[in-house]
Amino acid sequence: MSDVALRLAVPSDVPTLERWDRAEHVIAVSGDDEPWDWPREIDVPWQEVWIGEVDDRPIGVVVVLDAAGEPTNYWGDASGPVSPGTCAIDIWIGEPEAVGRGYGTAMMKHAIDRAFDAHGAHTILIDPLVTNTRAIDFYRSLGFTDVGPRRFGQDDCLVLQLRSPHQGETHRLTPIPGEAKRIPRNPGETH
Q1: 163: left (phi over 0), alpha (psi -120 to 50) or beta
Q2: Is the pLDDT of residue 190 over 50?
């Protein structure tokens, strides 16, 4: 079995990302709010969109974003916006045959490393649907803890957080040119 290679998304990835947005297995775990505007999403300064590849074939996407710098205040709540130094992650495996083979684990570990090590985040947030218990259990196995339920658009989600083990000085997320990185999948992982 091959490892996962990660690279930053480019405009030629847009048709694949749009196809994944419409895939039934993705909608089932990510909700049915508006699809992502991928040409814009891969080019904004407050996030990185990474494509996971196996044997040079795209299989999934992971987004690392500056939750405080994201202009819609999606991650903020009634008490105000999130604090600078907070990142958020979105992830899904777009190719059905790649689900449950450990690739998501490798991609999440990459995203966590990017948020904490490359961007100096103090906290990472993630918001699976409350019905996606498999993902919730997976995030908890990586050390995420529950913040609480929250409605985003039409989706009932559970917000989870992961605190940095470094607790050092933080800074605003800025794009750092990514280099392709080959990451071993986690054999035996079922997420």
Answers
A1: beta
A2: no
Count of domains for the chain: 1
Q: Is residue 71 included in any domain, yes or no?
A: yes
Looking at residue 92, which CATH number applies to its domain?
3.40.630.30
What are phi and psi for residue 6, nearest 5 degrees?
A: -120, 140
pLDDT band for position 22 (cuts 50, 70, 90) = confident
* pTM: predicted TM-score of the whole model, two decimal places: 0.84
C-alpha 18/C-alpha 137 separation (Å) is: 27
* Residue corresponding to tokens 């035996």: 188
- pLDDT at position 47 is 94
**Residue 114 — φ and ψ, nearest 5°?**
-60, -50
Residue 139 to residue 145: CA distance in whole angstroms? 8
Rounded-to-10 torsion of CA 151, 148, 44, 58: -90
Q: Is residue 142 part of a domain?
A: no
Any domain includes 11? yes
* Domain, as residue range, for 24: 4-120
